[in-house]
Specification:
The chain is mostly helical. The protein is 84% helix and 0% strand. Helix 1 (4-26) packs antiparallel against helix 2 and helix 4 (101-115) packs antiparallel against helix 5.
Amino acid sequence: MTGKIELKWGAFIGGANLAWLYAAFYLGMRDNGLGLIQLSALIGAVISVIGYFLALRAVHRAAPEATSIENMRSGVVICGITTSIAVLAQVGYLRLIHPEYTNYIVDEIARHYESSGQSKEVVAEIVEGAQKTYGFHSCLLQAGLGAFLTGIISTFLFVALRIRFCR
């Protein structure tokens, strides 16, 4: 592999997820309740998985003689590019697009637990945990780990399915 395919697809998957993150906000999916935030995250994951399968199919078509290890390497390179873009996209999102995201999601979580009848003490503990979980650095870590794990798992599944069905 020359690396051009991996670069192209890593940028494409990362760009598609960046576009989805921002579009989901402007469509009202990131500031209209926890359910829509979860749905937008699921759609982002589906975009990534489809992107990886298309990318690895392109890698395989470009070099059908490549071994499974070489295909895994290509997937890891794509994953590295996508993960980098995911973290940068999250920085832009949290600093420029939706800087009040942490406060918003913590308030939504508090409302959810208050409406379910939890005591004020329990809600206070949950809010404290949510502030840590949805803080700036934690969100960057979650974006990076989510992109990385999605890429690695998608790559592994693609290669495993190729081994299983292409023999």
